[in-house]
Input
Amino acid sequence: MSSDRVIKLLREAYADEIETVMNYQTNAIVLDGVRAEEIKGSLQADIQEELTHAEQIGQRLKQLGARPPSSMEFTPRQESLQPPEDSTDVLAVINGVIDAEEAAIATYRDLIDAATEANDPVTEDLAVTLLADEEAHRTEFRGFRKEYRND
Ligand SMILES: [Fe+2]
Ligand SMILES: [Fe+2]
Output
């Protein structure tokens, strides 16, 4: 029932979610200044959501007879989300977050297609839910970007 492509995308998505947790956490700690407070709070809220996403994906992998990846299999991808040299450069972090959310959106769209093709409606349903969450995150950070660009 499960296809290799579904498993591959679920494993990639799991690794991306964990990398997102790491980078959101690090940026939430590193950023300084009054203007960063709102962003830090939003990152902290999203960390919990992304961690829940990872868990849901991991459980789905298990149900399909597979496993989520662990650290020795991990390849980092979020170059633009590394904490900026200038710890008050909030816009750099906002842009990095938008890149990460767009990558997640692309992965969940691919997963929806793969799951449909594999006749796997449970994975498809999960991917649709996660896609909706990532689109909401992107909208929130696009809003922040508008404001910070205007300063
Ligand atoms: Fe996520
Ligand atoms: Fe997200």
Observations:
- Residues 46, 50, 101, 104, 134, 137 surround fe (ii) ion (ligand 2) (CB under 6 Å).
- The CA atoms of residues 101 and 134 lie 6 Å apart.
